[in-house]
Amino acid sequence: MEDYMFYIDAEGLLSVFRLMGGAEAEELAKLLLTRPGMREDELASALQMDVKRVRKLLHQLNELSLVAYDMVVDKELNKRVFRWRLQQEQVQGVVKTQLKRIAERLRMLKKHYETNQLYWCGNQGCRKYIFDEALDKFFKCPSCGGRLMVFDSTELLRIVDEKLAEINKLLE
Ligand SMILES: [Zn+2]
User: Fold this and answer.
1) Each residue of 140-153: pLDDT tens digit?
2) How confident is the model at residue 5 (pLDDT cuts 50, 70, 90)?
3) Contact, 110 vs 161, CB < 8 A?
4) In the chain, where are the structural domains located?
5) What is the CATH number of domain 10-86?
6) 164 C-alpha to ligand 1 centroid (Å)
C-alpha cells in the first residue's frame, strides 16, 4: 500500500507563520526556511529588526511549536548561542487541524442541504430559507421581494463533495 504523507508546500508554510505572527513572523520564517540554524543576532540584522524584538518573536513562535532551537557553543564567539530552525512537522499539524475544521464545516453544510428543502429567490446576494422560514415570510424574499422558490441543491452538493474529497486526500 502506498504511504501518504501530509505535506504543505513552502507557500503554505509561510502563510501559517503570517497567520500566527504577522508579516514579521513570515519574513523570519522565510529566512529560516533557506538558512536553518541562524542566530538571533543574525536574524535581527537580516530582518533589520531590534534583536530584543526578534527574540520575543522567536519565543512566541516557539510557544506555538512553530520554531525550535538548539543551544550550541559557538567557537568563534566563545559562548553559548541559540540556533533557530523551523519545526516543519508541527506546522503541518497546525494546517492539518485547520483542514479538519473546514471539512467539519463542509460536512455540516452538506447535512443542512441534504436534510432541508431550501427556498430561494434566485438573487445571489440573498440568503436561502428552510421551509418554516419561507412559510413565515409567505414565500416572499424579505431582502428583495422576489418569490421564494424550491432551491435545487444538486450542483452545490456536488461542489461540497469535491472539496471534501480534496481535503480528505490531503489528510490521508
Ligand atoms: Zn431575494
Assistant:
1) 999 999 999 999 99
2) very low
3) yes
4) 10-86, 107-171
5) 1.10.10.10
6) 29
What is the CA(122)–ligand 1 centre distance, in A?
Answer: 7
Q: How many CB atoms lie within 10 A of CB 82?
A: 17
**Short-list 61, 72, 78, 75, CA closest to 39:** 72
What's the Cα-to-Cα distance from 25 to each of 56, 70, 76, rounded to whole Å?
A: 11, 19, 28
Residue found under cell 510557544: 63
| Among 103, 104, 33, 102, CA closest to 66 | 33
CA of 161 from ligand 1 middle (Å) equals 27
Distance (Å) from CA 148 to ligand 1 centroid? 8
d(CA 110, CA 60): 38
Please check whether residue 67 is in contact with residue 30, taking contact to mean a CB–CB distance below 8 angstroms.
Answer: no
Distance (Å, whole) CA 172 – CA 9: 16
